[in-house]
Design goal:
Length: about 900
């Protein structure tokens, strides 16, 4: 009788280590003939997620808390065992991968193809770390969390009840096995829901899943966009249990909800929202009025935590996504649209619950007092950036003229806040962003720069002020929270940038440390300089990336002592978490918590902070890759056209250019400029032997050579640099005495030597071949229609009977067509025109006087006419140079040899 799945789970739970099939057979008391049935049961349990498979062994999954982790501060997340690291796996197209630590600190761990192939790209994995710092290598222990749930691919019907889906993403291992379905036809693009859980992949079984829907025929750009998003773990659909909870949320705010939780009624305050033209979720509203010699600023934020409670499936899914992803043709929201665009969105003329930061500033925009509280509000208008900017510019906008005084008050507050921040050293790179303008049929029409207007800055300053006020509250009350951390720039990178800036005539002092105020002063010097954008981009790369952390360190870029995110809970999980922590503090009514409770809370928040940081980086990758994909679609029909461009970055394999009018970026490979270029890392320039320098910010003219939407890549060739025609740098010709570089071969190269004229050139025998006594076959002469091109190598292996003059011509002197080689009356070849060649011949001739042993004899001496010889044997009679064969005679060198003569 075969054991049930419960009995197998019990056996695995009782064991102190993962068990193999034979161990399970023995422990269950089964006969070896029942092994096949046991394997089938184990396979079904793995697919169902009941047990985990590690290599050829099985185990049950240890219970894990939803958010808590057990680790010392700074150690591997979730594990206390030394030598283990938890991180995110990134698989290269060549098969190998790297595991990036969740904390973002420390070295990445290399996984060879055999290990990286056992998990999927972007999986959260646990690896055993080996090696030394700088050269860490790992072994995959298990998959902690499978990021990718959906895959886009081509549906192919196969025999029987099964079909296969070929994924568009080349990083996935092979076809995905799926049951046949009526939802798609052969050749359709489909969406597949993977059936693998958190176990390590089996090389024999591969991936399996089920078709979740058809996306139509291949060639639809939206399918490629979905594939990019799925590859980073983002979905366009929510699990059924999440949608069930969302459907139970009401569509309007009741009076009971409006009066609950000690909410202040702000429905009489004329709050407004200001967002983009195509925005659908409005999570912030603002209002300003004069107060004394300063200002009162009210920032009301949607109260998402009223509907998304801790422990709900909605909350777990929001944490898994951690952010909304905004793409040119769609939004992948963090919350279902019923919440994000419905009850949580601050729609005009509708009651909404909110969390409020009520702040008072003096005339210099220093915060004098603030109050945080829950409220209920009613927006009076849904304004757009373009409308507000038109009013501020003095234009007549009839349906917004009544709000002109409020717009002007908000402008005055924002200008005062910006002046205050700049005074304390906040950095403003002001780098333009690009956006894709989509047509009505879902095709990209053009790429244009995203203009940053005064109306954008107005809202930015209000949100920054609210975030700082809430962060100050958490610091004053000494409460655990999730902060936005931005550290000081890397000193080494900053020193390299200072060297580069000096080459452009700008001085960045590094002797007494560099504050953000000093850096901001440097950026102001670049205003109007031709290289302003290029230098700003290079300076930005030397800065640290902002992340979320449970530790408050400050924000270097904003020159803020306290900072967190509070103003976007619809699209960012850390903001939602801050709202929840505020409410929890108010509910305790001043009761103190134990030190152990605070420590557990900080560990839980740190885990959420790392998850949010990792998902934020993934969202940025998706947005960047989708823009690159649409850019290639825009340019695919323009191959061969010429464009004016600016060099945006330089690498050792080429440089990237941005087209001045089309605002797309592509690559110019170093091969297009010729031989000899090297990367000067200090100057961020490609330097060539003829003095040319390819540097960031340089103007050029290029021609589009190729476009690959699949790889999201465009290749250009340079035509002009700084209005000068580009000349290709060719490698100098080899000189006669220089040896030719060996051509790449499949096997390691072996020494070669020349043999008698009329015989083919062969590799020198290996040690094993020299020991063999078996005679070899006689060589075949080369084909007459293809004269062999020989190269000269100085080796003492010429036959004694053969004078050096009879040697084959050199590599640079093609052989002439002559009578059969070795025929009577053959004339010696003409003297070489190269002066050093005769000297080399003479040296080779002299070396033969000490090289007449049988080992150094020619491989194939010529046999007399009519006499057959075995390969490698001399003809009958006495051999010269052998015992009893007489005194060997050295071949005569042509001409006289004198030291120093060439």
């Amino acid at each position: 009788m075969n054991p049930t799945s419960e009995q197998i789970k019990q056996l695995l739970s009782d064991a102190d280590h993962p068990l193999g099939v034979k161990e399970l057979l023995r422990l269950a008391g089964l006969h070896p003939g029942q092994q096949t049935e046991l394997k089938r049961t184990l396979r079904e349990m793995v697919r169902g997620g009941q047990i985990l498979k590690e290599g050829k062994r099985f185990r049950v999954e240890e219970p894990r808390h939803a958010h808590a982790t057990s680790r010392p501060h700074g150690g591997p997340r979730g594990h206390e065992e030394p030598g283990l690291l938890e991180g995110v796996l990134h698989v290269h197209r060549d098969g190998y991968g790297f595991v990036h630590p969740l904390s973002g600190e420390g070295d990445n761990v290399f996984l060879p193809p055999a290990e990286a192939g056992r998990a999927l790209d972007n999986d959260r994995v646990l690896v055993e770390v080996m090696g030394r710092p700088g050269r860490l290598e790992g072994r995959l222990v298990r998959v902690v969390q499978r990021r990718r749930q959906l895959v886009v691919g081509t549906y192919e019907e196969r025999g029987g009840r099964h079909a296969a889906v070929l994924p568009l993403d080349a990083s996935l291992p092979g076809p995905i096995r799926v049951p046949r379905t009526q939802m798609a036809r052969d050749g359709d693009l489909v969406k597949v829901r993977l059936g693998v859980g958190s176990q390590v992949l089996d090389a024999e079984e591969g991936l399996f899943g089920e078709v979740a829907g058809s996306l139509g025929q291949r060639g639809d750009p939206s399918a490629e966009v979905l594939s990019i998003a799925y590859g980073q773990g983002f979905n366009d659909e929510f699990p059924p249990e999440v949608m069930d909870e969302a459907d139970r949320v009401g569509l309007a705010v009741s009076e009971e909800e409006a009066r609950g939780e000690s909410r202040k009624d702000l429905r009489s305050l004329p709050l407004i929202t200001i967002d983009g033209e195509d925005a659908r979720d409005f999570d912030d509203a603002v209002y300003a009025e004069p107060q004394g010699n300063g200002w009162r600023l009210v920032v009301a934020i949607a109260d998402v935590t009223h509907y998304v409670r801790e422990g709900m499936a909605l909350d777990a899914e929001a944490l898994r996504r951690a952010t909304s992803v905004y793409l040119p043709d769609r939004v992948l929201p963090m919350l279902p649209e019923r919440l994000s665009n419905g009850i949580c969105s601050l729609r005009p003329e509708e009651d909404r619950l909110c969390m409020v930061a009520d702040m008072v500033f003096d005339a210099r925009a220093h915060l004098r007092s603030y109050e945080l509280y829950p409220g209920v509000m009613r927006s009076v208008a849904r304004c757009t950036y373009n409308e507000v900017q038109a009013v501020l510019d003095g234009e007549d906008v009839p349906h917004r003229n009544t709000l002109r005084p409020l717009f002007e008050r908000l402008q005055a507050v924002s200008r005062a806040l910006r002046k205050m921040r700049q005074g304390r050293g906040a950095i403003d790179f002001d780098l333009p962003e690009h956006k894709v303008v989509m047509g009505e049929e879902g095709q990209p029409e053009r790429m244009e720069k995203r203009e940053r207007k005064e109306s954008h800055r107005l809202i930015e300053e209000c949100m920054l002020a609210a975030n700082e006020a809430v962060a100050k509250f958490f610091q004053d009350e000494e409460l655990p929270s999730v902060y936005r951390f931005h550290g000081e720039p890397d000193e080494q990178k900053l020193a390299s940038f200072a060297t580069l800036a000096q080459a452009y005539g700008f001085k960045l002092r590094m002797d007494e440390g560099l504050s953000s105020k000093d850096l901001n002063a440097f950026i102001s010097q670049l205003e109007g300089h031709p290289e302003q954008r290029a230098l700003n981009q290079l300076l930005l790369r030397s800065m640290m990336q902002a992340v979320y952390s449970s530790t408050q360190v400050g924000h270097y870029g904003l020159a803020a002592e306290h900072y967190l995110h509070f103003t976007s809970p619809i699209r960012r999980y850390p903001d939602l978490l801050v709202h929840r922590l505020l409410k929890a503090h108010w509910a305790r009514r001043g009761k103190q918590r134990s030190a152990a409770g605070v420590e557990r809370e900080e560990e839980r928040l740190e885990a959420m902070a790392e998850q949010s940081s990792e998902r934020e980086r993934a969202a940025m990758l998706v947005e960047r890759e989708v823009i690159s994909f649409y850019a290639t679609l825009l340019m695919k029909d323009r191959v061969g056209e010429e464009f004016d461009a600016t060099i945006s970055s330089v690498t050792d394999f080429g440089f990237f250019v941005e087209l001045d009018t089309e605002h797309v970026e592509g690559l110019v490979k170093t091969d297009a400029l010729g031989f000899g270029g090297r990367l000067d890392k200090l100057l961020h320039a490609l330097v060539y032997p003829d003095g040319r320098r390819i540097r960031v910010g340089q103007k050029c003219r290029v021609r589009l050579v190729s476009v690959s939407p699949e790889r999201r890549q465009m290749d250009f060739e340079p035509l002009e640099l700084d209005s000068q025609p580009v000349t290709r740098q060719e490698p100098r010709p080899r000189r006669p005495w220089e040896r030719e570089a060996p051509s790449p071969v499949a096997e390691p190269p072996r020494h070669r030597r020349f043999v008698r004229e009329g015989q083919r050139e062969e590799a020198a025998p290996s040690r094993f071949e020299k020991r063999r006594s078996t005679p070899r076959e006689a060589p075949r002469p080369p084909a007459a229609e293809e004269p062999r091109r020989r190269r000269f190598v100085v080796r003492p292996a010429l036959a004694p009977e053969t004078p050096p003059e009879a040697e084959a011509p050199s590599r640079w002197q093609p052989p002439a067509r002559e009578p059969d080689e070795g025929a009577p009356g053959q004339e010696a070849p003409a003297k070489s025109p190269h002066p050093g060649f005769d000297r080399i011949r003479a040296l080779a001739a002299q070396s033969h006087r000490v090289a007449q042993s049988p080992r150094m004899a020619p491989a194939h001496p010529a046999a007399p006419s009519g006499k057959k010889t075995h390969r490698g044997e001399a003809p009958a009679g006495k051999r010269k140079g052998a015992p009893g064969g007489g005194k060997p005679s050295a071949p005569k060198a042509r001409g006289k040899f004198k030291p120093g003569r060439r």
